[in-house]
Amino acid sequence: MRGARGALACVVLALGAIAPLARAQGVPVPPDQTGQPPTGKPDIRPERVAIEVVGGTYVGLAGYFVGRGVGTFATRMMSEDHDRLREKIVHTTGIVGGAFTVGGFIYAVGDMGSETGSFSATMLGVGVGAVASELLSRAVFHRRHYTEFKEPTKRKWLSATLEACLPAIGGTIGFNSTRRWQR
Predict the structure, then answer these.
(1) For residues 26 and 129, what is the distance between their CA atoms, to the nearest angstrom?
(2) CB count, 10 Å around CB of 100?
(3) pTM, rounded to two decimals
(4) Residue 38 in 3-state DSSP?
(5) In angstroms, rounded to a whole number, what is the distance separating the alpha carbons of residues 167 and 162?
């Protein structure tokens, strides 16, 4: 339970850190010469993409641990005979928690100001990134779960970073492929 509180504190801290940025992004849509909002796609701004990827990665890690905490709490009454099943449930709730926090964060950052995009495309990108990270992790690191991974700390962090950043990259691609001006 202590880990879930720490992860929740990280999420709150991350959201607090981007709040001033969100306020600064709240500029109205610049009208064209006819007074209408512009058509087409807004230009991609590198600082927004960087915030989506880096912030999405770290918020996703926090969401993963909060999801694991929820899964642990939900399965605490299971007997020791079902330890493998309990670990699968806990891991799955962690993945789901991480995926939704990544998608929600990317959508929230991308939807600031006068731009918007598709949440479903963002979540599709997160899903594709999560599947790619799992497949790449199995191919490169030859493992299934963190509990079976008995390698040096640097390699563990490399694996965790890989698994955390690919869903954020996928979600950012998904959101920015549907980005448009708000009407």
Answers:
(1) 29
(2) 15
(3) 0.72
(4) coil
(5) 9
